[in-house]
Design brief:
Helices cover 36% and strands 21% of the residues. It is built from 5 helices and 4 strands. A 4-stranded antiparallel β-sheet has the order 2-3-1-4, with helices on one face. A hairpin with a 6-residue loop joins β2 and β3.
Length: 140
């Protein structure tokens, strides 16, 4: 990847629906070159997919939670659970906990119902939950 690729990616991060012509104008790169480079970046796996960022409150996901999870030894979280619409990101981490999960819910009641069920169904030893009080910056 070179400087041109990074400038194209920056434009796509701002708005993945930007037209080739718009990106070309903003980057100073010819439209045909922009198109070829985007195609190459997709083929090489640099671009996984084009997506969108939603307004959390308007789609009923204004209650954001981060949960640190310590699993029981040799436990595996069921892949079905990871596909749950509330689970947005999952990271394997080092330290006292094994996983960090970012989740979004309508409200605390919906979260509470989810976490009680989650603890029962999964081999979870302990959790540490943090509630987001201000969404200062969130990228997709």
């Amino acid at each position: 990847m070179d400087k041109k690729d990074y400038s194209i990616l920056e434009q796509l991060r701002e708005n993945s629906r930007s037209s080739i012509r718009y990106i070309a104008k903003k980057t100073g790169i010819r439209p045909s070159t922009v198109h070829q480079r985007i195609t190459k970046l997709k083929k090489e796996g640099v671009i996984d997919k084009f997506t969108l960022k939603l307004n959390n409150n308007k789609v009923g996901e204004g209650f954001i939670i981060f949960v640190f999870i310590k699993t029981k030894p040799s436990a595996q979280i069921d892949s079905k659970v990871l596909k749950d619409i509330h689970i947005k990101e999952v990271f394997g981490i080092t330290g006292e906990y094994d996983l960090l999960i970012k989740m979004k819910f309508k409200d605390v009641i919906e979260f509470n119902d989810f976490i009680i069920k989650f603890r029962k169904e999964q081999q979870v030893e302990t959790t540490h939950t943090m509630v987001v009080t201000a969404n200062i910056k969130e990228e997709m």
